[in-house]
Amino acid sequence: MKNQFFRIVLALVMLTCSIYKAGAQNIQAEAKLQQYTIRIGDQTKLFISVHQPAKAHVNFPKLTDTITGKVVIVKANKPDTAYDKDNHNAFTVTQSYLITSFDAGTYTIPTFSIGSEGGVLKTNELTLQVETVKVDTTKAIYDIKQPMAVVYTFWDWLHDNWYWVAIPLLLIGG
Known about the structure:
Mean pLDDT: 84
Oligomer: single chain
Number of strands: 11
Strand content: 35-45%
C-alpha cells in the first residue's frame, strides 16, 4: 500500500514538472537593433523582446548607462506589451533602449540574461557598426556664417520692460 502511494506521488510530481517545463520552453528571448549601422553620435534603438505565455513572469536586465565601453544608453523606455493575435494566452513584452556611440568602430553587443520561472533566457549577440563622417579634404576650409545683426528699438525695450515704466507712473498718479 505504501509503495503504491509513493508511486502515485512520484508520478504526480513528474507530471507536474513536465507540464511546468513544457510551459517554460514556450518562453523565447531575442534582441535586435533598429539600425545596425549608424554614424558617430547618431542614435538607434535596441529592442529586447520576450515571447511568453500570459501567466509567465520574466525579469529584464537592469541596464543603466552603458552596454559596452563605447555604446552608451541615452534613454530606457518602459516595457511594452503586445498580445499575440493567434494565441490569446501568449504575449510579447518588449523593452527598448535608445543607444549611441561617439567612437567609430564595430561593437559587439553581448547577450542579455533574462530571468524567468523556467530558468535564465539568453538573447542573441548583436553587432553595431559606427561609421565616421566623411570629410572632403579637396575643398577649402571656411568660416562659419557670421551672426546676424538684429535691430533692438525703444519700442522693443518698452514691450519687454513695460512694468518698469508702469509702476512708477502708478505711484506718481496715486
